[in-house]
Amino acid sequence: MAFKLTYATMFNPPEELHKGFDGAVAKLKQNLGKEYGMIINGKDVFADDKWEDHSPVNTDWVLARLQKGNATHAAQAIAAARAAFPKWSHTPWQERVKLVRKAASLIEQRIFDLGAAMALEVGKNRMESLGDVQETADLMYYSAKMVEENNGFVKPMGKDPLVGYDATNVSVLRPYGVWLVVSPFNFPFALTGGPTGAALVAGNTVVIKPATDTAWIVRLYAECLRDAGFPEGVVNFVTGPGSTLGQALVDSKEVDGATFTGSFDVGMKMYRDFAQRNYVRPVILELGGKNPAIVSRHADLSDAATGILRSAFGLQGQKCSAASRVLVEEPVYEDLIGRLKEATEKLVIGDPTERATYLGPVINQSSYNDFKNFTEEINQGGGKFLTGGHVKTGGIFDKGYYCEPTFVTDLPFEHRLWQYEMFLPITTIGKVGNLDEALKIANNVNYGLTAGFYGSQAEVEMFFDRIEAGVTYANRPQGATTGAWPGFQPFGGWKGSGASGKNGGGLYYVQLYMHEQIRTLVKPASNGKSAAAKKKAASKPVKKTIKKTATRKTTKKTARKTRR
Ligand code: NDP
């Protein structure tokens, strides 16, 4: 069977994948530091201010020079998207499907070059990097497939029930207009490409604003769309600080809908700011997580240890789906933590482009400082380090932001870090007396993104039923809480983790980018009468109905009056 790259199959890839990736890294390293524009109305646009994008792997490496866009660029990008909307939204959905598929296929063709850039800019290991790129293509294919399978969301409804009419009723989903996509640093490709693909295939035009830390790789995504041949203005790409450029986009009254993926605080601010208009506009929020992995006394501990390790430290714990809390039933606690310690100590930390590396650096200086502060706080709060607890120093480690994979035990459940999303390779482990207690603790957070369970079949049903999360896994060694794939595990959160209640890469996602219009058409009668006669005939029963209703209402009113 041919190999299909997903987050669940990436652990033992074929040799060609390694070769392709190694070749692309070598080539890319010869060509770093180029200047990239924004893309507005199909043209490269350069700002007066620029910034240098340094790699977290080695901060001496300048990956790219990028534009510090401002409110004027925000307005230009929105105006271009607005101007392109009428034509794009009236382009037959079959054409839009074709173009989105073409772009997805281009992404697949460029997977090694894009994966290499991803590893250098985000610090993801090679398989995670390639996974992010392939996931993007699959998210785009999936939205295209949904539109096609639903006939462009043009669907006949029931017949008009009014006597005397022959009418058709058709439900049509139509695009909103200009759609803003704001994406985070950790899955810069998939979380830009998933929403963008859905918005485009639905008929919206798009303005993309990537995270500052990962603007280069998203520029390479925008190039895939440009090269696929989207008309000018349909996709626009602007770069610059969230607090200025991003805020200007959010504050614009010319944006008709938005998808924001990022932290809870920024997302909630955006939600509130976005409400400042004369009517409600759709905003899809995908926010943080504090995801629990629960291990019962009946669990297969080998699977549990493998799945927890992968989900705690994949991408250095900087996944919204990371297993940041582990709750273990007392009888198997010692056994499980022993396994976790042994396996964690074997993980290789280093340059993420190297084949053996599991953990690369964290994203930036601020996250690196956070790691030092959190570990200090844990120390003072009574937590013990089962593994890690320090940043890495010496050699290459002094050039980038490297932190040890850290499991914490004995931190009291009342400590704030059991609730707070640290977004680093730090996972707290707690001992519980039974599964009731585990579920109570698991659900007692603001978030509800992903959750994992290891235990018996009967316990699994109870877990699925009671856990408050949008993505749930049981007995999964590939990842306790991570590794969703479009079309298999649609991804989205409950509570403070998401706003739409529908998961990306799933059956109900692309519809979020469209509003419904019902089209009722009364057909001309076909019995040979003149148009005027038909009109007269058709209007008669209506008059009667209105009269009757009025009479009934009047009678009721009179009756009530009489009773009083
Ligand atoms: P941030 O919230 O810091 O930033 C997200 C995006 O918002 C960035 O592009 C940022 O730009 C932009 N931004 C910042 N301020 C504003 C503003 N005032 N107006 C408009 N845009 C703004 O998140 P991170 O990039 O640090 O990503 C990590 C977070 O994302 C975690 O909380 C994680 O859980 C969450 N996440 C959720 C996912 C989900 O599916 N639920 C998936 C992946 C991540 P800039 O970088 O320039 O500041």
What brief labels describe this structure?
22 strands, five-stranded parallel β-sheet, disordered C terminus, 41% helix, single chain, seven-stranded mixed β-sheet, 564 residues, alpha/beta, binds NADPH dihydro-nicotinamide-adenine-dinucleotide phosphate
Task: Set down the secondary structure blueprint.
Elements: H1 15-29, E1 34-35, E2 38-40, E3 43-45, E4 50-54, E5 62-67, H2 71-89, H3 93-109, H4 111-122, H5 126-149, E6 154-156, E7 167-175, E8 178-182, H6 190-201, E9 205-209, H7 215-228, E10 235-237, H8 242-251, E11 257-261, H9 264-274, E12 283-286, E13 291-295, H10 301-313, E14 323-329, H11 330-345, H12 365-380, E15 384-385, E16 406-409, E17 426-432, H13 435-443, E18 447-448, E19 450-454, H14 457-466, E20 471-474, E21 494-495, E22 514-522, H15 531-563
Parallel strand pairs: 1-5, 8-9, 8-11, 9-10, 11-12, 13-14, 13-19, 14-17, 16-17, 19-20
Antiparallel strand pairs: 2-3, 4-5, 6-7, 7-22, 15-16, 18-21
The chain binds NADPH dihydro-nicotinamide-adenine-dinucleotide phosphate.
NADPH dihydro-nicotinamide-adenine-dinucleotide phosphate binds near residues 187, 288 and 421.
Summarize the entry for a quick read:
The protein is of the alpha/beta class. It contains 15 helices and 22 strands.
Q: Can you walk through the features of this model?
A:
The longest helix is centred in the C-terminal third of the chain and has 33 residues, at 531-563. The strands form 6 sheets. Strands 15-16-17-14-13-19-20 form a 7-stranded mixed sheet, sandwiched between helices. A 5-stranded parallel sheet has the order 10-9-8-11-12, with helices on both faces. Strands 1-5-4 form a 3-stranded mixed sheet, with no helix packed on it. It has helices spanning 15-29, 71-89, 93-109, 111-122, 126-149, 190-201, 215-228, 242-251, 264-274, 301-313, 330-345, 365-380, 435-443, 457-466, 531-563; strands at residues 34-35, 38-40, 43-45, 50-54, 62-67, 154-156, 167-175, 178-182, 205-209, 235-237, 257-261, 283-286, 291-295, 323-329, 384-385, 406-409, 426-432, 447-448, 450-454, 471-474, 494-495, 514-522. The protein is globular and about 80 Å long. α4 runs antiparallel to α7 (215-228) and α5 runs parallel beside α6 (190-201). The protein has 564 residues and is of the alpha/beta class. It starts with 14 loop residues before the first helix and ends with a helix. α10 links the parallel β13 (291-295) and β14 (323-329). The site of NADPH dihydro-nicotinamide-adenine-dinucleotide phosphate has 33 residues, from α8 and α9.
